[in-house]
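Hi R.,

Here's the chain you asked about this morning:
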Amino acid sequence: MCRWLAYAGTSVVLSDLLYKPEHSLIDQSLHSRMGVETTNGDGFGIGWYGSDAGTPAIIRDTGPAWNNRNLREIAGHVRSPLFFAHVRASTGTAVQQTNCHPFRHGRWMWMHNGAIAEFHRLRRDLSLAIDPVLFPSLEGSTDSEVMFYLAVTFGLDQDVPGAVARMAGLVERVGRDEGVEYPLQMTIAVADGERMWTFRYSSRHASRSLFCSSRADAIRALHPDLDFLRGVSEDTRLVVSEPLGDLPGVWNEVPESSYGVVQPGWDEFRPFKPEPV
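And the predicted structure, written out as tokens:
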């Protein structure tokens, strides 16, 4: 499957998080410790919001992240208060640019780790549930992109947790109608330029790993020598598929079957449950 990183808070240069940590996302693309696969080399992508917090910019490529000179060059010069980064291990769909994460629609950005079980059997019914107005925007062949456009169909603009819950409910219903016992496995990040939501859920209730950073002031008290944390706000948060290092007190496992929202002033985690459609 995949590894991803989502950041929201004080504006930073992307390379400070993509390359500098001991177990950075670039390191994870070669040496994942908690993923299904050790190597995540089937493409990568980064997406970020500029100062106007409008439509995000996205770059994606089919090669591995660990030796991409363009990624290193861009990451060293782009600064953003909210960005996503993803390294891909395909679950069976083609290695092509349109299948790399993150995905974008308007101001929305989305990335996923996990899979819809037996997606080749469920793909038609799930795709037909996408709003016909949105269907031409579907570019690739992944379950992740279908999940995104289903969430948009089910009201992502108005109610992010509700839209994702209805998407998950549909996937589980269609899957079980086809005899798939555990249809859904997902950790998801979604953002609109101002807020970021993260989800951890699976039909088996044994979801892929996901961690959130502690408050910046608490980390500074424990590790005053961390250069990255100097000057960042208390609102700053990282959500990652696996920790970027082994420092105690920095990383907290996201609870099973939960979602979190990160926005200026506060953040919280709440229970997540699929909703019937």
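Residues 124 and 146 are 10 Å apart (CA to CA).

Let me know if you need anything else.
M.
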